[in-house]
Design a protein that fits this description.
Elements: H1 10-13, E1 21-25, E2 28-34, E3 40-41, H2 48-63, H3 82-90, H4 95-109, H5 134-151, H6 159-170, H7 180-186, H8 200-210, H9 218-248, H10 259-286, E4 289-290, E5 297-298, H11 299-315, H12 317-333, H13 340-349
Antiparallel strand pairs: 1-2, 2-3, 4-5
Helix pairs in contact: 2-10, 4-6, 5-10, 6-10, 9-10, 9-11, 10-11, 11-12
The structure holds fe (ii) ion (2 copies).
The site of one fe (ii) ion has 4 residues, from helix 10.
Length: 358
Amino acid sequence: MSLLQTSWTETELLADEPNLEPLIVGDHRCHGGFDESGQYRSPRTRFRNPAIAAWQAQHSADFNTSLLDVPLDTWPPTSPNVAQSKFLLSEGVRAPVIVQLTRIGTVEGFGAAMRMWNVPDRQRFFVESIAGTTIEHLDRGLFEAQARDEAGWEDEYGHRDMWWAARDVAFENPVVEDMTELMLFRLGVTTAPGAPVPDAAAIRTQQHQVQVFAGIDLDAELMIQRMIGLLLIEISAAHLFAWAEELLSDSNLVAGNGEAARIVSYIRQDEAPHVEYLRTALTEMRDRTFVGEHGNIPGAEVIGTLWERGIAESTGTRRDESLALALREVEAGLIDHPRRVEILENYKALGVASPSMS
Ligand SMILES: [Fe+2]
Ligand SMILES: [Fe+2]
């Protein structure tokens, strides 16, 4: 009998640490806050962090396996990289960096959709019990907590607005374009920027096309695919955080005396529980057995296959697309610049070699 507490209520998993000094940016309250020692504490982690640690410990005790992991060097650094971005700013070319920060915030805001991801009664998909696991708590606070962290909740700013606030501090309220339509397209939701979101029937057809395991409930597989995609975004985002923090702390190039970089460091801290609960839930699935329509399937086969697909997608096609996009944005930012050719040449020399940039 374990002494670990592995069962939590939704209220507990959404609870903040008590008595935090609020984090205010400009005149707006953000989520999270500071404890008595001045340490930043992420929102909704009073019980969420100990809960995730308990599920991890329980899983290790029950299955004696290690957690799913993927090294950060699977992904190359961001493009533009820090040197390229600093070079552009030193030349007064600000648009590509401002666009990048706007884009990150926009994608964070899409996190609101994940409160819809849950598939009810998840026990029916597994041979073994899921009592006292991360899987059991996905709809008991975990998806909801992350949705609130990413998109904000009630009057509190979440990551979307915190990235935009960091941008506005660093670049003194620049004029920005809304990136929603472009990012919906780039994430594969729409067929072209500004095109309507497909209707329910079209979405269902699309979903059947991406199904890998015909014997497993489609909605369950889709939930797992989404969780894998999100976990890979969360892990690869570490490069973006490093890029943003280094760039935005350079007081010679951006305004705010390091405040923008501090905001980003708080967001980075908030991402830790997202990575941890997602990898724990996927590990719990990997080490169990899926109930299939035509017979049971080992979890290692299901999660292993979907995981490899997810990695291939995130490091392959999407990477090339984002490199090409980065270069187009720099070119657009330079369009009226008298030293356009020279700056572009120097910019390319500071980057990593890639087919899209040759
Ligand atoms: Fe986030
Ligand atoms: Fe996140």
